[in-house]
Amino acid sequence: MMMMMMMNIHIPFKNLMTSLLIFRNRKSEKKRIFIERNREEGDRQLWNDYFSETPTYPPNIFRRRFRMSKPLFLRIVDHLSTEVEYFAPTEDAVGRQSLSPLQKCTAAIRLLAYGGGADTVDEYVRLGETTARNCLHRFSAAIINLFGHEYLRRPTSEDLERLLHKGEERGFPGMIGSIDCMHWEWKNCPTAWQGMYSRGTDKPTIVLEAVASYDLWIWHAFFGAPGTMNDLNILDRSPVFDDIINGVAPEVNFHVNGREYDLAYYLTDGIYPEWATFIKSIRLPQGPKHSLFAETQEAVRKDVERAFGVLQARFAVIKNPARIWKKSMISNVMRACIILHNMIVEDERRTDDQDETFQDADISFLVKEPTELFSSLDRRARVRGRPVHQQLKHDLIEHIWDKFG
User: Fold this and answer.
1) What pLDDT is recorded for position 7?
2) DSSP symbol at 172
3) 8, 68, 135, 198 — which has fewest CB within 10 A?
4) Where is 279: in which H helix or E strand?
5) How far apart are CA 400 and CA 263, in angstroms?
6) Residue whose C-alpha is closest to residue 337's, from 180, 73, 109
7) Candidate from 2-6, 77-81, 121-125, 396-400 with smallest mean pLDDT
8) What is the rounded CA–CA span in Å between residue 211 and residue 209?
């Protein structure tokens, strides 16, 4: 009798627990919200507005909204649609076309150019927030893989000749660019890392070290150092002189004030050390020669500052605080923006009279292939040679005074 009563109590309790588990699972399940965005209409509208034979918006408005010319944008879309599977046009099981390559690339460019949230392109390009964010990251990775070797390269012998010629015209024989650092605020930096990435203010930042030339082309980009580091700490980590130390960089010979030098140099601000590859301004110039040198050096060194300004103006995602969580994705976005910036610079570059007469002009420099005369330790010592720096700076002061004074 007692056993029968226990069985009658046990069976309802078991059924009750089963019912509670089923109710909990049903309550935790969230139905996926489906929005019919009519992506075909969005693709048709985008084509009629910008890419048809008679587009609604003229080329100048296309240039302002896409940050580049239409032929350059179509070239990028063509490469991505043929070489990256994600951007290739496909069909689903019922034969409906997927998002077109124009829609995906336009969404990525708009996010880079305007720096808004991922859902800001939904109404026009007809992409959901998650899809737009995925387009941005895949677009950045594809730009790096397809164009990084060409548009984020070290200067070749031909590039060095052009840069050296322009530097000599501006009063600095042997100068090939300017170097400096820029900070990018990281809004969603993990709390455990904020002390390492915050300096001065409570806002964490990631640092970009870059070398830019007179035409705003960025030849070197080292990104990822924490914001607490200054330019000297970043220089110790940077690979900016690795090619020279490893003996693979072209050799440069030039003359200043009657003396021969064999290392090209960058213009820097006052924090950088007195190396043979750096030329700084004079903090407190005394006399007309020093004043003219300081004025000329500070004016020419603004090339890298201008490059940073143009880069942030073209791609507001770099100017605004980064809302990405993963540092690797932030690095991809930065590198992709620099590559696109260099592509735009090349596309808009115009051949002037100086470049046309370059081959016939008298030059005082020579670029040749690297030799194996020195070991890596000797090359490192030559790059950091302070006596050469002081002698070169003295000769540049005299050269600029003779040229412009």
Assistant:
1) 47
2) -
3) 8
4) strand 278-279
5) 19
6) 109
7) 2-6
8) 7
